[in-house]
Queue: 4 jobs
Job 1
Amino acid sequence: MQNQANPIEIMANELARLPGIGKKSAQRLAYYIVSMPKEDVKRLADSIWEGRSNIKLCEICGNYSSENLCEICSDERRNKNIICVVKEPRDLTAVERVHDYRGLYHVLHGVLSPMDNIGPNDLNIRSLLMRLADGDVQEVIVATNPDIEGEATASYLARLIKPMGIKVTRIAYGVPIGSDLEYADEVTLAKALEGRQEI
Amino acid sequence: MQNQANPIEIMANELARLPGIGKKSAQRLAYYIVSMPKEDVKRLADSIWEGRSNIKLCEICGNYSSENLCEICSDERRNKNIICVVKEPRDLTAVERVHDYRGLYHVLHGVLSPMDNIGPNDLNIRSLLMRLADGDVQEVIVATNPDIEGEATASYLARLIKPMGIKVTRIAYGVPIGSDLEYADEVTLAKALEGRQEI
């Protein structure tokens, strides 16, 4: 009964619904938040709600955006001849963090997954094909995850896009930079050998 | 520039200010929150803000409460002859979780710490002495953490309270030295209460 009425417990229960936050750390966070200056908590709560309510999907690429077009699609300096296809907006952010890639993106919002009943129509694929029909794009890099579903999605996209005369590439597999060969799993190592490059 | 304007980044930055949430997990959480149903996010943000803004300190014991008196102080069934003194409200919650203790509490909101310039006047001690002056209380259990500051605070309280003819006890060293009350498991905490010694 006490737990029902207590605002701290209510807050802790809401926090515990977030991924990676267990019951105990949710409670710890709730107690911390209650001890924070009110204006800081206001800013935190507002950033959460406003972040969620102000976000829409970019009409071109499907990235999260506060405007109708995301910052990348509306940036005239980006290379419009190349599109990098990712599963989720946070993957886009990861690629963007590299600062090497200057092309555009397309966010699928998922990958093909027969097990979860996710087919091509559940993904943001139709709008990708419409973008490609314009004729500007010369290459599509498929940067879905190197797992079964990511691979299946990449193959599916390649089958659709190649007949349009557009080059379809896949990000390279290999041992991660700075890692130890000894600890690489067999599949990764096999892929790294297979994809070896002349130096 | 992108990071300044982006609502997701703003949310991630606010989340990263919380203890135990690094920059990367804050970003992960922010992306997760953006993908949550709006009504769930509303409830989360409201619980955070309302939890903080509706909470005050119990006028008797200093515990967090949504009313002037906390649920424990206003519960007639609690044993008014015994007061358990804790450093923080979350320690009270930890003791309460044991379900063994049926007395009252007093929350100091800190411990003596000359290093941090925290003296007796910075703690909720005066109101404890006023409660004891009523004459109902026969025992004060000091359940501050088993560390240097917790010990010093316990000794200080014992010196103040014993002359009033009130028994002062310390929770037993069932709790591992140097640890945090909040993380003690129920059995350890129950043993510690059971084995309390007069100081």
Job 2
Amino acid sequence: MKIGAKVWAIAEGYIPSYSSGPQPEMLSHETACILNTNEVDAEIDLTLYFKDREPAGPYKIRVGARRTFHLRFNNLTDPEKVPLGTDYSSVFVSNVPVVVQHTRLDSRQSANALLSTIAYSQP
Amino acid sequence: MKIGAKVWAIAEGYIPSYSSGPQPEMLSHETACILNTNEVDAEIDLTLYFKDREPAGPYKIRVGARRTFHLRFNNLTDPEKVPLGTDYSSVFVSNVPVVVQHTRLDSRQSANALLSTIAYSQP
Amino acid sequence: MKIGAKVWAIAEGYIPSYSSGPQPEMLSHETACILNTNEVDAEIDLTLYFKDREPAGPYKIRVGARRTFHLRFNNLTDPEKVPLGTDYSSVFVSNVPVVVQHTRLDSRQSANALLSTIAYSQP
Amino acid sequence: MKIGAKVWAIAEGYIPSYSSGPQPEMLSHETACILNTNEVDAEIDLTLYFKDREPAGPYKIRVGARRTFHLRFNNLTDPEKVPLGTDYSSVFVSNVPVVVQHTRLDSRQSANALLSTIAYSQP
């Protein structure tokens, strides 16, 4: 069964520039959770959009067959790191249908805040 | 009136490995809220996907006719328990249309954090 | 311009049974935000679904033309009040297209938690 | 590649009337994140709906080609400011497809709360 869509967008992106609490668990982070239910690996091109410069990417992401991958934007390095404390958006283009969900842990304060939402899938 | 879809996916799943506060109310938990507005029971197969192993399941879930069921992933035991502190995704396949929403209470800290999002429904 | 859909569902519902902080602003509450962009009033039938009893309702809700209404489930009384500390789901059926979003403020602790998600609209 | 839709609605809107913590970073705010992946600028008309008065707007918003813009409702002034502590909804009509996501930081308390959800896109 093929579940998902090939094109996804997350309009909201922001990695807080500082954290509190034990790390890496309580490190402020921004995550894209990607589910690949297919019998083949998913090859995904990720592009980041910014407020006042040209887009970055594509970042190459592979999610194994019948696997889920919780991508931490903090960990992206190639072709460049994601700047902290900066607004961005992200677009995922996959060769097979996947499902993408967006989550942030904001640990700038001693009391963490969490948000999550399904990403936008192009019909 | 038939409301919902037969196939749903939640890309993000994570049960924190510890909690604070009075239990069971403030126990860290991950919930899938399932609404069945049909005049017949919904029979649902739930499959869990992981980062580095084959999927688990199917877990068999029944939601009564004209009922809602708030499934706590913490309570799943058959065919196996859901590991704590581990990323996973979930896929629901129902014999009748249902509506699925995802919620987490994270009580690792004294101040709880909440998230919720509609799941992805396959068109 | 007609924006929205006539049938909406919120699978997750739960009004915490206690609160902390100044009221009514910081009272624990569950809200359905309803937007009616039409040139006529929206007449909405709301039905609540539970885990172990028959549904309640319909509750009759009117949202004026070109108006928004943030419905607090705490305030529903006719035909019956919504029980606290109990899981429920809700279904909205409107005579004209509307947009529905779900929000909860959980103030059981001194540090509030917030969640929000777009409801499920029947295509 | 054209990603998104031309008409979006956020049913829930509310800018808390006070804040705590360092500003502007921890100022209570309500944001609409708008992604424009097109090769041309997006020209957007934003209209706000209220509980007990006629709508406000249109506010004119421009998002550059291949850019993202995180609109803070707090900063809108023309044709009028957005009142604090008041429920509202928002509708976006764009000349090209965009993606809209809704986020709020509520810093009325020392421990912030965050919410986010994808907006409703008109099919």
Job 3
Amino acid sequence: MIVVVKNGTTERQIENFCDWIRSQGIGTHLFHGDFQTVIGLIGDTMKLDEEMIHGLDIVESVKRISDPFKSANRKFHPDDSVIDISGKTTVGGDIFAVMAGPCSIESEEQILEVARAVKASGATMLRGGAFKPRTSPYDFQGLRADGIELLLEAKKETGLPIVTEIMSATHLPLFEDVDVIQVGARNMQNFELLKELGKTRKPILLKRGLANTLKELLMSAEYIMAGGNENIILCERGVRTFETYTRNTLDISAVPMLHELSHLPVIVDPSHATGVSRLVKPMALAAAAAGANGLMIEVHNNPKAALCDGPQSLTPEQFDDVMKSVSCIIDAVKATK
Amino acid sequence: MIVVVKNGTTERQIENFCDWIRSQGIGTHLFHGDFQTVIGLIGDTMKLDEEMIHGLDIVESVKRISDPFKSANRKFHPDDSVIDISGKTTVGGDIFAVMAGPCSIESEEQILEVARAVKASGATMLRGGAFKPRTSPYDFQGLRADGIELLLEAKKETGLPIVTEIMSATHLPLFEDVDVIQVGARNMQNFELLKELGKTRKPILLKRGLANTLKELLMSAEYIMAGGNENIILCERGVRTFETYTRNTLDISAVPMLHELSHLPVIVDPSHATGVSRLVKPMALAAAAAGANGLMIEVHNNPKAALCDGPQSLTPEQFDDVMKSVSCIIDAVKATK
Amino acid sequence: MIVVVKNGTTERQIENFCDWIRSQGIGTHLFHGDFQTVIGLIGDTMKLDEEMIHGLDIVESVKRISDPFKSANRKFHPDDSVIDISGKTTVGGDIFAVMAGPCSIESEEQILEVARAVKASGATMLRGGAFKPRTSPYDFQGLRADGIELLLEAKKETGLPIVTEIMSATHLPLFEDVDVIQVGARNMQNFELLKELGKTRKPILLKRGLANTLKELLMSAEYIMAGGNENIILCERGVRTFETYTRNTLDISAVPMLHELSHLPVIVDPSHATGVSRLVKPMALAAAAAGANGLMIEVHNNPKAALCDGPQSLTPEQFDDVMKSVSCIIDAVKATK
Amino acid sequence: MIVVVKNGTTERQIENFCDWIRSQGIGTHLFHGDFQTVIGLIGDTMKLDEEMIHGLDIVESVKRISDPFKSANRKFHPDDSVIDISGKTTVGGDIFAVMAGPCSIESEEQILEVARAVKASGATMLRGGAFKPRTSPYDFQGLRADGIELLLEAKKETGLPIVTEIMSATHLPLFEDVDVIQVGARNMQNFELLKELGKTRKPILLKRGLANTLKELLMSAEYIMAGGNENIILCERGVRTFETYTRNTLDISAVPMLHELSHLPVIVDPSHATGVSRLVKPMALAAAAAGANGLMIEVHNNPKAALCDGPQSLTPEQFDDVMKSVSCIIDAVKATK
């Protein structure tokens, strides 16, 4: 960590600061520029609070040299993590993961029909929303526990592992037979929930918040990993910008950047990011071309009557077309390596 | 709600859409422009899902005419809400509310000393963090239950009502004697938490999320109000932008805009917004000038050793100065009315 | 255009407003909802100023139904535009355009070496900066007129059409033999410059501003087209967000969205968008997969000593590798259609 | 400047880098952390290009310690600059500057009527748009040269110095008798224009771009000052965010922050920032309370018929009320010092 000292700071003040730092087992190293004095802090600075130091009277600015994430950091774990999904499939290895299904589970008929269709097209997991985070309290909030029941039925029939979102740690008992627990964008920094998930050993699909940096995403992964659960799948799903034609701006560059920073697998959700079904295909292809480990795609047997997020859903036929095209892109990407 | 129909849509398709809308007890009204056909939906469209309609094949765009919030809406409640705080003070009426205290509660000595100081300077409530949302799992997470105990002691001694943040509904029993429960920016859309708070009758201080619109803030208030708890205090605390000199960008225009949209009181937190203690005073004055109903300000008896968020804390002396200046501004604002 | 009238507006006021609108040759159509009155304006509303109407006392909000761009609008020109580049190549047709070269032209040796290299790898045009927009007045500002001379030499030797940026209309005479004139992100709304470019018939490469919406990009294209120059190539190059690992956030979804809105070709600049050379390849592949009509890529024969923007430049060897990979992706995309 | 070296870099590579830096007359200072090596660059690093160094293979990250602006920097000019306006008034000293007038000049009658009214209410300068930057080529583009003529008439009659916007350096001759030349937000990084303005000695009102940081604003001021013109007035006018209720988000914290970074005066434009006339008063008061040196406010004698930007204009009566209130706030602010 590098600390830039304010002009006008006395030698005595600098000495005091360095003493305090050294008392925490961290070394200090001073050097004087023409205009400014800088202190290098050497050692395990992960335990120092950057903002606290920044707030000291004598400090002009602070720069953290080492990344603040450890367990998620590729520097300490050079090999790609491969997340095992109930022994049936993986995310992060050779298999390109595709989690497909409806935004909201609505009925037995619906979820079974979609599950069969996406399996036939090559999806590796079934997704479906039971608990739904909705901006308005007046919107449909999901079938909740009943939705998970229906999802488990579909799992039983098709053999597809299932992915569904959790909104409160108190619901955890309902997720016992769920294969992958999803943490939604709005809960990415619900730290109490992250800590509880760290106590489980379930694969966690962690979505990037609408206004969160990649560093914050990795720090949230770190919360779960610090509890002992290293089965994390990162998910880029778009960030909030000023653009209004798309719901959010899908940050595809997050894929190679996260791969550089971390060993955790990265998937992309083009459905929520754009909010427009006709953009799902091009963005799915772009994500695959950029090296994503998989996709999460909304598929609905009757998007026009879907109880939520209809606009971005594909029909099973459209999904089948996307899968064929994605497969061509993946082959091309492999050929380029 | 106004629905713009895509070019190329057949009369039959439009007819089907209108039938479906009318089957929900909502009227339709068609008109044809030179280039485009538009359908007006008339009635209680609050129950319609804008995004779902937007997703229909025949729909080019949708515009909601009425605001999607009802209980929080000034249109239906023209008079300012005045929130009673345990019979000791109010927020939203004639009293300018000032919630002051340390970011984190650290010790009995600290919280008592700060409590006495801020009371002497005219604060109307004591704030202090027991549960702390920190980006990193390696940072200090707060004294938690012990912190609330210390806060209650300070309340007992000074008589100041207390404000502290909740991070999980499972902690609610610990908040029984807390006067105002704070929902932090990162939990503004933790809907399961909001629903639980809707079941209480405690005043809730709801902070705007870092990347949330005013409409979303009001929708989150609506979640709590829909549960029957109408004691909501809104808090502007800065939004995330590209600017890096300040931690966030304090959106002071949110104050008059929220007053126009809603009857709920609005306070401002200049400490977290800027992250720089020397900006707290000018921004506190600006907030008061813009018509805020109060302020939340961090005060620490020893900011340099604070375990968290030190940079933005004021000393008791600085806080006293801010209070005197704010008081001049409030008098001036009253004189201008 | 749809105008939502404020509650409390009198019949008389509405009548006056409608008269004023009709006096401009535009029809009006009233309808009354349960809570709100709405007026539909029918006709050539392109000439109405949305913000001006929004400012009227009786108006609560305004929604433009038709897009405000006409010449650039796919609705009125369903077929893709193919821009001819001096009879030597095209952008927007079957050819995948690749403009490659150094950020800044530094010397004859440099530009010739790079030109030969990128031609050998399959670039269809040579790019190079002569006039450089730099944030600091103390940074290298480009070779200016001398840079264009060197570029023309490289054109002569290699036969590659050349692309270079203009920063002021007063420099136009220097661009006589330039094949494509680039308008940089910071000048996207330099309307006086756009008007002057509208008087030429040169192909214009119009880059999206760092904080500009797609609608604003198309309105800037419209400025040039309104002058009679329809040879516009749009370029996505990343938008400004809160993320700091990448310089900007490349908005790949702009590619299919612009293709839907407009008939103009769309290329992508992954070099400037990310500011990180090791992200250029994955983002180039992503852009190709999403359907871009081409790429603009920085190539430098010695990136480590480049006078500007070195970090994002590729070596000729790296560029050759990117070209081979992009070609695989393009074949795959064609196969998916 | 601090350079963090990538892991795996050889001693030889570091040596080469340091040699190259030293060859530019800048000292180097190495220190080795547990995980990372850092090089301090000591001397006049203003001439080094941060991004170029960041792009070197061996470099992980770069931090500039000294601010890249020099002439605008308060460190080197501790006293507030006071800008003289044609000997008639000042900006930055004891006078609170108020520039008021219509967004667009429309007629002799209009500008004279507004000029007389704003003078009577205490405005210190008259503003009016002759050249108008409009997003759409189909919107009113201003009276241009004729508008400046009308403004000069109003100046003659009222004695008020005048402020108007320039959009191209080729128009400079028309600005000979203009007292303050305004550079609009969209031209803040039109560097060729800034350079030309640096050759004049006219006071320049430099507006912050919609997506520009304070550092970039100061670098643009630096462009003008590097040419020898030190008469710069900075203007905050809102930045682009995701919020939609207001046109832009007025960043009031820019006022105290710019005062800390620079000696140049700072004014605020609440009219354009919010785009809503009823927010102009509270935001004007907030700006004054935060320590702004002045305001720019739109006033129109008939806002409902204004040819542009009507919604944010005040009537002369409303402006008079704002002036009275602002005056109360300024007195209160003085009392607090």
Job 4
Amino acid sequence: MIDYEGLAALLSGWDNITILTHKSPDGDCIGAGLALCYYLRAMGKRANVLNSDGIPQRFSFLSEGYTQQEFEERHVVSVDVADTQLLGERLEHYSDRIDLCIDHHRTSKRFAARNFIDPDASATCLVLYELFEHMGGTPSGIVASCLYTGIATDTGCFKFQNTTPAAHRAAARLMELGADYEEINRRMFDIKSRGRLAAEQILIGGIRYFDEGGIAVIVITNEFIEKYGIDRAELDGMASIPLNVEGVKIGITMKQQEDNPECFKVSLRTVCADACEIAEKFGGGGHVRAAGCTVSGSADSALLRIVSEAEKYL
Amino acid sequence: MIDYEGLAALLSGWDNITILTHKSPDGDCIGAGLALCYYLRAMGKRANVLNSDGIPQRFSFLSEGYTQQEFEERHVVSVDVADTQLLGERLEHYSDRIDLCIDHHRTSKRFAARNFIDPDASATCLVLYELFEHMGGTPSGIVASCLYTGIATDTGCFKFQNTTPAAHRAAARLMELGADYEEINRRMFDIKSRGRLAAEQILIGGIRYFDEGGIAVIVITNEFIEKYGIDRAELDGMASIPLNVEGVKIGITMKQQEDNPECFKVSLRTVCADACEIAEKFGGGGHVRAAGCTVSGSADSALLRIVSEAEKYL
């Protein structure tokens, strides 16, 4: 594997770059994709960033000045994509021609011609932060905001176990470079619409407990989402709720798929237990304390399957 | 005013030290008090830390190894106390004989013989962190945990406007020194009892909005606290809730006093408006984005008075 210096040299020699991010985008992949794109453009290169689902409203403040460029694509780079299956429908045709994969997921499928995976980094944005340090040139304020967003969201605002001293030091430097941390943190972690608050109240009221309160489950159905007119992107933050109840060791959030009601996207959050191991039993993956997978079946049967597996890890 | 070096030299020459913290203790005053006490003891000095209300259950993990020492008190130091009125009943007899006040509140009354106030520090624990850097010697793991707790709680886990690059760099170093950040963050920010969750949901459901949603108010009455069997110390975190509703610029939480039902402790959280200025109108104080005061009257009249004042700042 190349080191940061090698990666910096490689990218410095490239131009006309398409950057791919993963479907159901989160703060780290949007932050990383836009940061890399802005940074390369500031170097005088041409670059675009693509997402199969577009950029969700809650991240739009990072892409305000962004427009697609016209160029003949010469290199394809993926950021924060652990598996080509996560590229989504609109980008899957890139699967077998990705030149470089930049990521921090330990479970990376290393699908690209070159793979730069730093599993010790709290976020892909932290990988990019280190990379930019090696490429020289001072990241602009918007690049700093993008990187800060990825680091903050992937570490749960510096709360999760995956937070490192390096993540804090990067945050300090990114603040100095102009990252709009107060606004980002409010947008990412605090502000909720009245509708979302109301929905949250009902979901919290409906938490189901198993194994003497060691496992807590929230089930979000399509019916519920429609009833409260909830933006699906807003639901990402819900995944941490069940684990925050006193005594809970494994928190599970199940979200019914819009286009496939017989299928639930499951988020696992744990203390003690290995969330990634549980997710892998269902073909998913992720990190030790936060992982995800997809479980098929009705709400009840999907719940039964995931809880039965999770129980083994208590 | 003495600088950090002078402060380090001063404290190094003292022994038999009583450390005072403020009533209704929060993470920063408990963290600072215990950190200073542990640090001085590790230097071979005798020191105790006192609080008028004792150490609340939620901070007890920081004082597990702590016992009071017997000695003839020679010096008195207050930490995180902006005004002697905040010492509380059991400590008010110290008011006129405090040798040194260490604090970060801009509104400090500078009541001690020597006052070391660093208003640019995110927390009093950050002042102590800098101080210990100047005193030499490596802080122990428990000192690191105490300091981390104060910095994390006063910055809302690095989210608030008062977060500085220095706060992040201190956090990085404190993690390396053994601060149990994951456990601390879970305890301070995430874990809630089922009772607290239920109470929170009811309070959120009862939020009152003024000025087209620019001001949001939560009123917590004694009746409510009794009904749900809530630990009053647990209610501190509630103060940030009203500001987290989309569109709210000033969030107000009013808590009826246990011993004086005609009196409400008011917490102000703001974006844009100066919370401290509003609080000062009612004899309170604090920071630009977070401040507090006491307002007397029935729930309705107290609410009317504080909202009428807050409106002027929208």
